[in-house]
Structures are given as C-alpha cells and as structure tokens.
Design brief:
It is a single chain. This protein is mainly alpha-helical and about 160 residues long. About 65% of the residues lie in helices and about 0% in strands. The chain has five helices and no strands. The longest helix is centred in the last third of the chain and has 33 residues. The chain starts with 7 loop residues before the first helix and ends in an 8-residue tail after the last helix. About 25% of the residues are buried.
Length: about 160
C-alpha cells in the first residue's frame, strides 16, 4: 500500500482523532466545562456525532488516496444538524468515553509508523481545529439569530 493511502484502520483512526482534537479544542478555549455556552456544545455534538457516523460508515472500496480527499471526512462533519439539547454534557461525556475505547482498541501506536504519516496527522490536527472553530462560530451565529431577536424597545 502506498504510504499516502489510508487503510481501514487508519480511516477509523482519523474519525476518532477528529473527536479527540475537538475535545482538546474545547478544553483549551473553555477552562471550566461548565462555562461552555450551549451553542458551542451543539457545535461539538454535531462534530462528535458526525465523527461517530464516519467510524460506522462502510469503508469505501477505494482507500482515501491523498490529503485532499480528507474532504470526505469534512463532509460527514457538515452533515450533522444538531439542535439544542438539555443533555449535552451527558452526550458529550458518553461520546468521549466511546472514542477513548475506540482509540485503545485500534492500538494507534502502530498507525503513525513513519514520518510521512506523522506529518499528515499534524496537518489533520490543524484542519480539524479549524473546522471545530468554524463550526462553533456557525452554530453560535445561528443560535443568536434564532434566539436573540430583540427589538429596540426590548434592548
């Protein structure tokens, strides 16, 4: 297999790594998880749910061939349409637990076994952090537009 192809194990790992990066992103941005705004939880839930869907999807017959095709993963992220939920924290905790188990089961130390793959993963880290930030802003803007229609009299 060419070193720039993702095999079945790596394809699942990309989705799991995506969830891990989003969790790290949220932890860096909001030191105390109790202060994470609902709109940000919604954004994170959407990304987690899509990552989970990505893991559960049938693996394509053809492996992902290059970094441009990681847009396939981004597609799953964009498909999510999560509405506001009361049980956000519970769902996030459950999904985080799922990904910890998934990463452990994949024995990921075997995945990043050469400099090329490590460099690709660093690129993915940046890519997913950027998408997480954009997803947060999009959800926040949408949340504000739906729930904060104050007239001049009300302000």
């Amino acid at each position: 297999m060419a070193k720039d192809h993702l095999n079945r194990e790596q394809y699942s790992f990309v989705a799991a790594a995506m969830a891990g990066r989003i969790k790290i992103f949220l932890n860096q941005k909001f030191i105390d998880s109790k202060n994470i705004p609902p709109a940000v939880y919604d954004a994170a839930l959407g990304l987690f749910d899509s990552a989970l869907e990505c893991v559960l999807q049938p693996i394509p017959e053809e492996p992902i061939k290059n970094s441009e095709d990681y847009a396939v993963v981004a597609y799953f992220m964009r498909r999510s349409n999560i509405v506001g939920r009361q049980d956000n924290r519970i769902k996030l905790d459950g999904l985080i637990c799922h990904y910890r188990q998934l990463i452990a089961s994949l024995k990921i130390e075997r995945v990043l076994d050469n400099a090329h793959e490590i460099e690709e993963f660093k690129n993915l880290e940046n890519f997913f952090s950027m998408l997480a930030a954009q997803g947060e802003q999009d959800r926040y803007d949408d949340h504000m537009s739906r729930h904060c229609h104050l007239s001049d009299d009300e302000q």
